[in-house]
Specification:
It is built from 3 helices and 11 strands; from the N terminus they run E-E-E-E-E-E-E-H-E-E-E-E-H-H. With about 180 residues, the protein is an alpha+beta fold. It has a 4-stranded mixed sheet, with no helix packed on it. A 4-stranded mixed sheet has the order 7-4-10-8, with helices on both faces.
Length: about 180
């Protein structure tokens, strides 16, 4: 069975600085019409940085939509369409933690919430870290902490860490590195 949905019309509902929301009328595979609400986002990057003792560089930030602080790996949005995710990951890691990796590799991509959120997150693994100065954005407030990798895995599996990009990167790295 063909599963493709065809866009018949699209209406912009909100055009913000980071996200754009649209409401589309679509044709379903059975020929009937339906609505889809889509949040367009430029995409982002997240970096799991491991130091020489297999500690993960984490950041704790207040996340307004959930009204609480979350422990996450360093991450950020792509600054413009077509920006190289590889370079953006290096930039975000340096800005948030001051870390510059000697070894840097892709962990693939994830779609955080494909039912309505059009964002692709590119995940990276950074190792052999050299620490330099942190350069936070003027509206960015976070605490950097080193957490043992095994503890990060446990916290992800037990649901203590809820951030999707962090969970995905930690578990991918666990399988890749066999730590």
């Amino acid at each position: 069975m063909e599963l493709t949905e065809k866009t018949l019309s699209s209406q912009t509902m909100f055009d913000g600085r980071i996200i754009h929301v649209r409401r589309d009328v679509i044709e379903l595979p059975n020929g009937k019409e339906a609505f889809r609400e889509v949040v367009d986002h430029p995409g982002g990057v997240a970096v799991l940085a491991l130091d020489g003792e297999n500690n993960v560089l984490t950041v704790t930030q207040y996340r307004y939509p959930f009204g609480k602080q979350l422990l996450e790996i360093p991450a950020g949005k792509l600054d413009h369409p077509g920006e190289d995710p590889y370079a953006a990951g290096l930039r975000e890691l340096k800005e948030e933690t001051g870390a510059v990796p000697g070894v840097y590799q892709s962990l693939g991509r994830i779609l955080p919430s494909p039912g309505c959120y059009a964002e692709t997150l590119h995940l990276y693994l950074a190792r052999d870290l050299k620490m330099e100065d942190q350069h936070l954005d003027e509206d960015e407030f976070l605490n950097v902490e080193r957490v043992p990798f095994a503890e990060m895995v446990r916290r992800c599996l037990e649901g203590e860490i809820e951030d999707a990009k962090t969970v995905a990167a930690v578990l991918k790295a666990k399988l890749l590195l066999n730590l």
